[in-house]
Amino acid sequence: MIAFLANCSGKAQDSSKENKKYKVVKTDEQWKKELTNKQYYVLRKAGTERPNSSPINKNYNAGVFICAGCKTPLYKSEYRFDSGTGWPSFDRAIEENVELDVDHKIGYARTELKCNTCGGHLGHSFDDGPKKTTGKRHCINGDALEFIPKKE
Questions:
Q1: 8 catalytic residue (yes or no)
Q2: How far is C-alpha 65 from the geometric centre of its chain's CA atoms?
């Protein structure tokens, strides 16, 4: 019998860019006080929420999705699409606000997406998005986001 063990634990600010200085830096205790347990797990520990568990997954209203940790605008609603995966999906981010990094948490390299302001883990990028736009799918944890509706 062969057993495969993978360590899926991690910290959102520990990565291949571990020397990067973010504009918003807080202690672990500060993050725990300001975030819900689910937000802390996703944003600060690079966790993954269960599919179809976030109300944001089916939010197609006009507006902007912001980082739940530091309130940086990350994704515009016009770039949102239904990927059928159970997680909010976008074909692109607001330029300069989302950082691309690499993680090896499940045994192979994946493109990790982080808030470029606080380093919070958002999700991962895949190359199976809409071919008519960017071809990218930013698969984002809903607990990493908050939604700001467009003002009429």
A1: no
A2: 11
Q: Which string of b and e fits 40-76 if b means at least 16 CB within 10 Å?
A: bbbbbebbbbeeeebebbebeeebbbbbbbbebebbb
Work out the average pLDDT over 44-68.
96
Q: Which of 67, 70, 118, 139 is catalytic?
A: 139
3-state SS, residue 129 = coil
Its pTM stands at: 0.86
User: Binning pLDDT at 50, 70 and 90, where does residue 2 land?
Assistant: very low
Locate 53 and state its tokens.
Answer: 């568990």
- For 99-134, give one letter per residue: b (16+ CB within 10 A) or e: bebebeeeeeebebbbbbbbbbbbbbbbeebeeeee
Helix (H, G, I), strand (E, B) or coil at 55: helix
Confidence at 15, pLDDT banded by 50, 70, 90: very low
Query: Which token pair is 64?
Result: 């902007």
